[in-house]
Amino acid sequence: MARFRHLISIDDLSKDDIVYILDKAEEFEEIARGKKSNILDGKILANLFFEPSTRTRMSFEVAMKRLGGDVLNMTAQEASSIAKGETLADTIRVVSKYADAIVIRHPLEGSARLAAEFSEVPVINAGDGAGQHPTQTLLDLYTIRKESRLEGLKIALLGDLKYSRTVHSLIKALTLFNAKIYLISPESLRLPEEFLEELEGDIEIANLEDVIGEIDVLYVTRIQKERFPDEEEYRKVAGSYKITPKILKDAKEDLIIMHPLPRVDEIDPAVDRTKHAKYFDQAFYGVPVRMAILTEVMVD
Amino acid sequence: MAEKELVISKIKEGTVIDHINAGKALLVLRILGIGPGSKETVSMVMNVPSEKMGKKDIVKVEGKFIGEEELNKIALIAPKATINLIKDYDIQKKFKVTLPEMIEGILSCPNRNCITNSREPIIPRFYVFVENDRVVAKCYYCGRKIKDVDKYIV
Ligand SMILES: Nc1ncnc2c1ncn2[C@@H]1O[C@H](COP(=O)(O)OP(=O)(O)OP(=O)(O)O)[C@@H](O)[C@H]1O
Ligand SMILES: [Mg+2]
Ligand SMILES: [Zn+2]
């Protein structure tokens, strides 16, 4: 029996479910690196991306194909014409007749939950507006466990903590593992008070210089230009949150740096050559994690 | 006490909703779907002095026994409401409303980016629960929390 039929929100998973998926993903690493497999032979995944995505869409596609399955992709043009003419409910009803599972990214919050209601096959949420993106959270947790530690973790989240759904879901999941969480952001991009209220955990607002010597993980997110009233303000703020080798000189030997990508200026390319840089490995881990999820919902 | 409280004449049969938070009687009717187009005779008193509540509203719907599930929806705005089912001028049954876990179609989601606010064949659905002595709702679809539920009753 599958642990879940659909994967819509990380909140739907218990700590035990999360650990189960991470353990399962471990077993898929070799296949993710190219070892042949036919576990999903004959299965078809429909990738419904109503919003552009490269990494997430490609890593689902790679995961599916390396497991011997096939993928139906919808083009951006098809997506926009569907979005105009048909309800999402109808699109899902039709596509779920063609495929064995559906991956959906859609600009409206709650869209994946709706899709699950109208689908005859499992639905995996790959981002619903500012809402949820559970496979990103799972791959983040996988990276942390693999490259650092999940229990007794000290982590700093840096950048846009206000709008980043990646950060919100990750914080929630990390509280399940009793992590010590430092929040580092410009005043205007702080974690919403309302969100903080609902959390039970060891969470503290901090400065990077004060905590760099004690953290195990530095999770960096992009600060978007659109969030600022003018270009100058943006540059000032973005500049002061840039990760450089200089800032890292006081870091712990085994500090790892993560980033959901794409990055713009927030990490100096010189950091890529340090042993701390794990963001490209993190992108790779998306493949075994998605393999674990795809097989969970499609193989009984 | 009951004598003194009977501000409006007795009804032979129907549903009396007592202990409604003062000022919420109209919203109670709205939740029950009772309005200008309804055929029932409805009377309503507002701001009646009450020992337990200071002030309260009372709604009486004649000739109709409203179902318990329907009535429990009003706990959203009147958590202390008491229901009295009247038959032959006497109270047949009395109970307090209990807040349901989930509510359908009464609230609309304040999140403009929520799928329930687009053209989809679904009825908005909310988890409801008490937090810091207040009834709050959380959208089943997008997760948005509503702290001032009164404002979002459709
Ligand atoms: N036949 C009736 N027609 C209309 N209203 C009635 C009738 N009988 C009772 N009521 C109303 O129903 C409510 C409950 O009546 P009841 O006699 O049980 O009062 P009570 O003892 O104060 O009850 P409670 O403890 O619920 O406040 C009151 O608001 C009363 O006016
Ligand atoms: Mg009384
Ligand atoms: Zn909503």
Describe the structure.
The complex is a heterodimer of chains A (300) and B (154). Chain A has 300 residues and is of the alpha/beta class. Helix content of chain A is 41%, strand content 14%. Chain A has helices spanning 15-32, 55-66, 76-85, 88-98, 111-118, 134-147, 165-176, 193-197, 208-211, 231-240, 279-298, and strands spanning 44-49, 70-73, 101-106, 123-128, 154-158, 180-184, 202-205, 217-220, 256-258. The N and C termini of chain A lie close together (6 Å). Chain B has two domains: 13-96, 2-Layer Sandwich (Alpha-Beta Plaits), CATH 3.30.70.140; 102-152, Aspartate carbamoyltransferase regulatory subunit, C-terminal domain (SH3 type barrels, Roll). Chain A binds chain B through residues 9, 11, 87-89, 106-111, 113-114, 117, 128-132, 194, and chain B through 111, 113-116, 118-122, 139-145. The structure holds adenosine-5'-triphosphate (ATP), magnesium ion (MG) and zinc ion. Adenosine-5'-triphosphate (ATP) is lined by residues 1-2, 5-6, 10-11, 16, 18, 58, 60, 82, 84, 86, 89, 91 of chain B.
Keywords:
heterodimer; A: 300 residues; alpha/beta; five-stranded parallel beta sheet; four-stranded parallel beta sheet; globular; B: 154 residues; mainly beta; Alpha-Beta Plaits; SH3 type barrels; 2 domains; five-stranded antiparallel beta sheet; four-stranded antiparallel beta sheet; 3 helices; 9 strands; 10% helix; binds adenosine-5'-triphosphate; binds magnesium ion; binds zinc ion
